[in-house]
Amino acid sequence: MPDSPDFYAALGVSRTASEDEIRKAYRKLARKHHPDVNPNDRKAEEKFKEISFAYEVLSDKDKRARYDEFGVQGLAEGFDPAQAREYTRWSQGARRSPSYEAFTSGADVDLEDLLGGLFGGAGRRARGPMRGQDASGEIDVDFLDAVRGGEVRVQVADRGALRIKIPPGSETGTKIRLAGQGDSGDAGAPAGDLYLTLRVRPHPLFRREGSDLHLDLPVTIPELVQGASVEVPTPDGSVTMKIPRHSQSARVLRLRGKGVVKLGTSERGDLYVKLLAELPDPADPRLESIAKDLESLYEGRDVRARLRKSS
C-alpha cells in the first residue's frame, strides 16, 4: 500500500479508529478549515478538500476496506478486488519459484497480459471469461432532487430509462455507481458497472454554497419597520421566520439547519435569507405623496456617507 496519500493521517486518527472517532475528527477539522471560516485562504480550502475526501473514503465501510487492503489504487473505477488478490497470490508464489528470475528477465514479457484486466481492463490473452467493461456518462438532475436525495428516473444515453438513488447533499460532479449496469461480460462473466456523473440544474429561488443555501425574500416596508412573521420556503417545505423590528433592506437572517445535508454525514448547513424591500404598486397615486412625507425623516442623515469613507 502506498505511503501517500494517508487518509488516516489527514484526519489525525489511527488505522484502528472507530467510525465515531473518524466522524468527530472530521467535524473538528472541517470547522477549522471550512472556506466560510477562512475566506480567500487557498491553503485552508485545499486542506478542507483533503479532509473531506479522506472522510468520504473512511466513513464508507466498503471504501475503507478496499483502501486498507489495496491503498488508493483500490478506489479506482473498475478496480476488481478478487483479481487483485489473485494476482498478489500469483506474484508471491512466483517470487518463491527458482525460475522467477529467469522468467522476469525475458524481453518478451507482456505485463498487460499478466495483469489481465486487474483494474477493469482486458488482457489480450487473459484466461477465462472476462468481466464487462465499466461505462460512464453524465445526467442532469433537478436541484431539489440533489439536495433532498432519493430515487429518481433518468434517461441515460444508450441505456434508456433507469431508476437511480441519489444521496442527499449531492452536487454537480457527484458520481453514482450502478453495479452491473455497464457493458456485458463474456459468457459466464458479470457485466461491468456504470458510473454516472451528476449535473445539477440551477434553482429559481435557491443558490447553493457548499452545504449552505441562500434565498432572496421580498418583504414590505411595514414588515421591515414593524417586524413580522413570514413564511419562508426551504427544500423541506415552508417555515415561519420572524423579521425583527427596524430591519434594513438587504439584511441577512439565518435559519439554522435548513440548508443541505453534508454528503456522507447527517450534518446540515444553514439557509441564509436576504430581506429585499418591495415597493407598493408604482401606479398607485398615493405613493408619491407618502414618499414626500418620508423625506423629512431623512433630514440631517446622509445614507451614503459610509460609501464615500471607504472609497
Mean pLDDT: 83
**CATH fold-type name of the largest domain:** HSP40/DNAj peptide-binding domain
Number of domains: 3
Question: What is the CATH class designation of the largest domain?
Answer: Mainly Beta
Structural class per helix/strand content?
Answer: alpha+beta
Helix content: 25-40%
Beta-sheet strand percentage?
Answer: 15-25%
Q: Give the N-terminus to C-terminus distance in angstroms.
A: 56 Å
Supply the CATH architecture of the largest domain: Sandwich
Structural description of this entry:
The chain is an alpha+beta fold and 311 residues long. The protein has three domains: 7-100, Helix Hairpins, CATH 1.10.287; 135-200, HSP40/DNAj peptide-binding domain (Sandwich), CATH 2.60.260.20; 206-310, Urease metallochaperone UreE, N-terminal domain (HSP40/DNAj peptide-binding domain, Sandwich). 32% of the residues lie in helices and 22% in strands. It has a four-stranded mixed sheet with strand order 6-7-11-10. It has a three-stranded mixed sheet with strand order 1-5-4. Helix 2 runs antiparallel to helix 3. The longest helix has 17 residues, at 42-58. It is elongated and about 95 Å long. The two termini are 56 Å apart. 16% of the residues are buried. Mean pLDDT is 83; it is low at 102-126.
List the main descriptive attributes of the protein structure presented here.
311 residues, alpha+beta, Helix Hairpins, HSP40/DNAj peptide-binding domain, 4-stranded mixed β-sheet, 3-stranded mixed β-sheet, 11 helices, 11 strands, elongated
